[in-house]
Prior knowledge:
Blueprint: E1 4-9, E2 18-24, E3 27-33, H1 46-49, H2 51-56, E4 65-68, E5 71-74, H3 77-95, E6 100-104, H4 112-125, E7 129-132, H5 139-149, E8 157-158, E9 165-169, H6 173-176, H7 186-195, E10 199-203, E11 216-218, H8 225-238, E12 251-252, H9 254-261, H10 266-273, H11 277-289, E13 293-297, H12 299-302, H13 307-320, E14 330-331, H14 375-381, E15 390-394, H15 398-401, H16 405-411, E16 417-421, E17 434-436, E18 457-460, H17 476-487, H18 497-514, H19 525-530, H20 536-547, H21 563-568, E19 573-577, H22 582-585, E20 593-594, H23 598-601, H24 604-612, E21 618-623, H25 637-640, E22 647-650, H26 652-658, E23 665-669, E24 674-681, E25 689-693, H27 706-710, E26 737-743
Helix pairs in contact: 3-17, 4-17, 5-13, 8-10, 8-11, 8-13, 10-11, 14-16, 17-18, 18-20
This protein binds ligand MGD (2 copies), iron/sulfur cluster (SF4) and molybdenum atom.
Amino acid sequence: MTDGMHLRTCSLCEAMCGLEITVEGGRVASIRPDRDDVWSRGYICPKGVALGDLHHDPDRLRAPLIRDGASWREASWEEAFAEVERRLHPVLQRHGIGAVAAYIGNPTAHNFSLSRYAGAFMPLSGITNLYSAGTVDQWPKNVVGALMYGGIWTIPVPDLDRASHLLVLGANPSASQGSLMATPDVLGKLDAIRARGGKVIVVDPRRTGTAQHADEWIPIRPGTDAALLMAMANVIFAEQRVDLGHLECVVRGLDELRDLCAPFTPEAVADTCQIDAATIRRLARELAEAETGVVYGRIGTCNQEFGTLASWLVEVLNIVTGNLDRPGGSMFANPAIPSLATLRPPEFAGGFSFGRYRSRVRGAPEVLGQFPVSCLAEEIAVEGEGRIRALITIAGNPVVSAPDAGKLDNALPSLECMVSLDNYLNETTRHAHVILPGASPLEQPHCGDMIWGWSVRNGARFSPAVFPLAADRPAEWEILLALAAIAGGQKASEIDTAVLDDLFFGGLVGALCQLEGTRVHGRDAGEIVAATGGRGPERMTDFMLRIGPFGDAYGASPNGLTLDELRAHQHGIDLGALVPRVADALQTEDGMIDLAPAHIVADVPRLSARLERRDGGLLLVSRRHLRSNNSWMHNVERLVRGRDRCTLLMHPRDARDAGVADGQRVSVRSSAGAIEVAVEVSDEMMPGVVSLPHGWGHDRDGIRLGVASRHAGANNNLLAPGELVDVPSGNAVVNGIPVEVSGVDEP
Ligand SMILES: Nc1nc2c(c(=O)[nH]1)N[C@H]1C(S)=C(S)[C@@H](COP(=O)(O)OP(=O)(O)OC[C@H]3O[C@@H](n4cnc5c(=O)[nH]c(N)nc54)[C@H](O)[C@@H]3O)O[C@H]1N2
Ligand SMILES: Nc1nc2c(c(=O)[nH]1)N[C@H]1C(S)=C(S)[C@@H](COP(=O)(O)OP(=O)(O)OC[C@H]3O[C@@H](n4cnc5c(=O)[nH]c(N)nc54)[C@H](O)[C@@H]3O)O[C@H]1N2
Ligand code: SF4
Ligand SMILES: [Mo]
């Protein structure tokens, strides 16, 4: 029944490639690019081809596992939920919901069910102790979006198709395929900028594959992008090049910004950034003079010492050069299906504030409702009132992906209850008491959720599941609802997820019918619910599409989109190039963009102090590889075969100084820990900086990852000190860690 050709969006990364998947005899026979896909037009990468391997992977869990001492037994879903209750309810009775925490991992954002129901899980369960991969990722962007544009997820995107000048900092789309910049074939788009006479510049301590598609590579000392960008702003002010263009009447704080930049002259920052002052001046002038120019910063500018300042200054430079919200500049996408995640949480109705409460052990301030993920280990390990005694992980592998990984690995066994919603028995889930398997990427429908919020064009597409989920298996949204209900105190045997879903959906429709500005404001919620068919994420998608900017608004725009209409367009619907929409995108209290938000400005003295610090030693940064995806795709043979990729890249001069030779095994040590890897001597690194991939270290006992265990690599995050965070966001610093390197065997 599943045999035949299926059109399908790849859900693995933001490129959202359209695929043609051929199934024969119940197995994936081939995966090819869909040349007629309106979005990706035939683009694909090797991971998309591996979706079949993931689906058929014998190690992928298909039934729940319950811990039995040191071993595991497969269980029915009823038994598994009963076991969750048996472990969780005593914690609730003794310590209350405050002793229960959740960790939400990255695949949540790429999963049809999880992305739409993570928002139901939190309020239904009553859990407020939330940790996520967000604080080792884009939390600085969320802080900046909230404070400048009024929305946590209001993050403008480079208009790659029309830009004539692109300055990329700390991003390597040749590996990552773009992040907070959704597009297929980024490199093709960079080439096109140059082909039409434009310029692409990459600022990165490593001469990456992306730099090879640029006009210029500018190496930078890790963690100093904020100083560079401050100096560029300084030049733009000093040379009277500020041009707000059509933003004049929505921007405030220009004078304060000018004063803040004043001390950061190119000469003042040059030594710190290791970029000469003349180059910094030129970078500023070229941006200001470009017909349409845009600055783009990603993980290397977030996961670092000054993540928020750097992310703020990216926006600042786009604004003061008049490039925000203009074609070819930095623009706001207009998603056809607005994500629930983009709705402002009620606790921030009156504007965003920070540090409303503090973490128990280190006193870290809350930022947008979360503590740094590196707090999780100590909140579990340190005894006392308020200790975390139960943890639910959802599509996350923090034992590999989060900083100070060793501490977390040691802390998890002390939990009274740990439940993981995950497809694998891996480094994190091996500590769980119950593992509940999610669907494979091909076993559920797919429809991009929040990713369309930062796509370089507007569009939409829906793909049905390729393989049906076995009849006895709940979908992931049902698992989330059941877990939420158990955490909320309900008995597992009495849970009816259909009722919970109706409650959640009805509540959502009711709230949006009352919210001013929505396309159903003032409408009868009961009628809207009755007019929306299906259940679960499909029903929610239909609703959000219909009330979205291109939707039929339940009859108000009769030619508008519905999910049925979207389904009929199997290759997707193109909704056109981005259009200027700043007034509509802004959700700030006064409808203005504050160039100098107090919470961010308060961190500038820390940057000034950084200019005084001399640090001559080696700094470690991270890197990604096209054939890898954070920690969880190393069990696919076709992606890991070939030479070892978990190597330390090191400049020849540094290798000579450390007395190590290409291919030699070395010890890499930081204040947090030590690992051993092979060194790869390469002048693609700038001197003084070494690079390791993250996501490896599959050498732990008790995991069930046959292929990955044979290509174990070492865990980069054993080296990341948990106390290193970007102050305004609490985001982890995993780039720019001081390390020492020495040989452990003969060269
Ligand atoms: N040193 C260093 N560390 C980093 C980074 C770095 O650049 N350097 N990058 C950081 C970033 S940007 C991120 S996003 C984080 C990622 O951090 P995490 O999200 O914690 O880690 P992942 O490796 O993505 O783990 C994903 C988990 O989800 C499971 N999974 C995959 N698909 C599904 C699914 O469909 N359903 C369910 N239920 N489970 C699924 C996998 O088996 C795996 O256990 O890592 C961060 N860590
Ligand atoms: N193939 C693949 N694709 C992925 C992922 C994956 O693991 N594999 N992960 C996905 C996820 S979760 C994310 S968040 C995105 C991330 O997408 P990107 O942001 O493109 O991430 P990286 O490819 O790690 O590139 C980060 C770059 O920052 C540089 N860098 C490090 N420190 C600094 C610094 O201080 N300053 C500057 N200027 N540069 C610095 C590094 O050398 C590296 O080249 O990728 C996504 N796509
Ligand atoms: S670039 Fe690769 S992983 Fe990303 S969506 Fe396309 S095929 Fe999938
Ligand atoms: Mo990420």
